[in-house]
Write a structure and sequence with these properties.
A 5-stranded mixed β-sheet has the order 1-3-5-8-9, with no helix packed on it. Strands 2-4-6-7 form a 4-stranded mixed β-sheet, with no helix packed on it. The protein contains 1 helix and 9 strands. It has one helix spanning about 15-20, and strands spanning about 35-40, 45, 55-60, 60-65, 75-80, 90, 95-100, 105-110, 115-120. β6 (about 90) and β7 form a beta hairpin. It is mainly beta.
Length: about 130
Amino acid sequence: MARLPTPGSDSGSWGDVLNTFLQVGHASDGTNIGGMVETNKSSGYTLAATDNGKRHVATAALTITVPSVGTLGNGFEVEIVNDSGGTVTIDGPGSTNVSLSDGDIACILEVHNKQRVVKGPSTIIS
């Protein structure tokens, strides 16, 4: 089982022990793996059903296009994090746009033939 290094007792293998521990939850490029897969986006992007359960981090001002209702599938959820220093636009069907300022986070959901963007201040609960 992976573990954190023990100070004073992992002499000569400290880095290997730490890397083994970190690889449990992180890919080799540093992105998270597991329940929420993280990918960076730096140019315009259209969501697809395969994005379900992912976190997209915008590293440049861009537009994320949401396809028509039914395309993403019932139960679809994706998180968008704006870390671009600019504005990220979520372009929904029917000319409905949502703007995210730098630092904003939004979830895009599709449930029962309805699409929703949930954004705004969040509350840390744990």
